[in-house]
Every structure is written in C-alpha cells, then in structure tokens.
Task: structure prediction
Amino acid sequence: MALRPIVKYPVPSLKEVAKPVTEFGPELEALVADMAETMYAAPGVGLAAPQIGIPLRLCVIDVSPKEQPRNLIVLANPEITKAEGEQVDEEGCLSVREYFADVKRFERIWVKAQDLQGNPLEFMAEGFYARVIQHELDHLRGTLFIDHLSSLKRSLYKKKLKKLLQEEEEEQQEQR
Ligand code: NI
Result:
C-alpha cells in the first residue's frame, strides 16, 4: 500500500469524465488499497480515483463515525437510478484547498454499482451517506462541489485560491 498524491483544483484532469472499470482483480485491489490509505490519511470520508489522477469510475467511501470500526465501501461504476428529497449542508473536498460551502443534494438516492470483485450492488442511501456518494459521483464526471455554487461565490474562491497559490510559491522560493 502507498499514499498517493491528491490532485488539486485547478488541475485540468479533475474536469475529465472517468472511464468504466472493466477489469477486476489484483491490480484493482492494489489501487483501491492505495485509495483507502490516502483517504484515511487525509483524512477524508470519500475519495474518487480521478483525485489521484486515475480516470476510472471508482471511489472509496467511509462515513462510519470516529471511534467506530472502519467500514470501507468500494463503488465501481456507480450510478444513481432514483433520487428524491433535498438536503443542504456544508461540503469540502480533498481536491479543493481551504474552502467549504453549502451544497444542495438529494436526501435519498438509489445506487447501482459493482463491488471490488465486480459483483453487482444495489442499495438505498440517505442523509450524509447519500451526500458523500453524490459528491464522489460528481468527481467521476468531472464535476467539483464548487461547480454547484453561484458564479459569484466561485469567483470569490478563485481569488482566494490565487492568493493561496502565490503564498505557496513564495514559501517554496524562500526555501531554495
Ligand atoms: Ni471531493
């Protein structure tokens, strides 16, 4: 297992549409192990393959409360087949530096996917779990949570990010 670097906005690959997972086996298992390790280390509650530069329809999720045993969920080729209701809550993303904002999502979703072995999965999710799945599915079609915001909020974030990146650059130059 290894930690993988997380790709961060505005890297263009985050905007790409991921491709279906077609091969299940040791290679996919190794990739998922790396994704899980990277997600837990961040720490985060979800990570999609495009976030480590792998353009596959694959994500890992763990929404189990702290102090509880880990409960890793692996979704390959996930899709939402039905959705209802509405919830608004604050979201952040491991690929979006230092920013959180309210995002509207479905309250309840029905999901079709495959597990790590390629077996079909079908289940209903609601509340926070449903929110995380919708966030990760967005990554698989090249969408970030900031794409759901008003253009005003998004441009404010872009300004903030520009400043952050400048500061990072200056720090790196001082270290040289
Ligand atoms: Ni994210």
Observations:
- Helices lie at 26-41, 127-140, 151-175.
- The first strand starts at residue 46 and ends at 48.
- The chain has three helices and seven strands.
- The pocket of nickel (II) ion is lined by residues 93-95, 135, 139 (CB under 6 Å).
